[in-house]
Design a protein that fits this description.
This protein is an alpha+beta fold and 220 residues long. It is 23% helix and 30% strand. It has four helices and eight strands. The chain has helices spanning 9-15, 83-105, 111-114, 119-135, and strands spanning 37-39, 66-68, 71-75, 137-152, 157-173, 179-180, 189-198, 204-213. The strands form two sheets. Strands 3, 4, 5, 6, 7 and 8 form a six-stranded mixed beta sheet that branches. Strands 1-2 form a two-stranded antiparallel ribbon. It starts with 8 loop residues before the first helix and ends in a 7-residue tail after the last strand.
Amino acid sequence: MNRRPTLLAAAALTAVAALSLSACGGGGDSSKGNDKIAGADTGNDSSAAASPTASVSDSAERPKIELPSDITYTFEWSKTGDADKDAVMSDSEQSIKAVDMAIANQNALDKGYLFYYEGEAAAGTQEFIQNYVDHKARTTGAYRFYDPVVTVDKDGTATLGYCEDQGKAFIKYLKSGEVKKTPVTKKSYVVYNTSLKKNKQGVWVIQKIISQSGSAKCLP
C-alpha cells in the first residue's frame, strides 16, 4: 500500500515487498485537528452497475465510510459513460477511503476495507494499517487523485491506473495531536496500478497494487 506519509514507511517496506510506501509532502498546520469522526456515506456507490460479462447482480450493501473531518479527497475521475468502468472507479474511491477509516479506527482488520480488498492486496494493506496502529498515528490532510486509466475485460477482471498528489497529506499522532510536516518533493506524486475482480456481490475488489513514487507520469 503506497498511499501515505513516511516515518511509517521503513517497517512497511520490509514487511510488504510488493507494496511500497511513499513520502508525503507539503507544508501544513501543525496544530491539533478535529478528531471527531464525521459520519458520511461518501462516494457514489449506488451508481456501480452490474457487469453483463460477469453475469452477476450488484446486490452488495457497501460499508458506510466514516472519517475524521480533517481528511478530504478530490477525485478528478470523470465518468466514462461505460457502466463497468465507472463502477470500477466508484468502488476504487471507496476502497481508498476505507483504508483511511481503518487507520482512524486503529483497526488493521476493519471490515470496511476488507470489503474491498482480497488476497495479496488485503495482506499488504493489513500490514500497512497495522504500522499506523503500532505508531498510534493516522492520516490527515488533503488527497488528490487524477489521470485514471481503466480497462475492463470480459472475464470480469479490470485494471485501474491513476496518480495521487500527497503534497497536502500528513501523519497525525493521536496522543499529542502533532501533525508531522514534510516538504513537497517529487516523491509526493505517486502512480498506482491496481488489478481488480468483480465478485459475486457485484463489487470490484482489489487483488493487487503496484505503486511508484516520483513517477514522471504524475509530476506537475
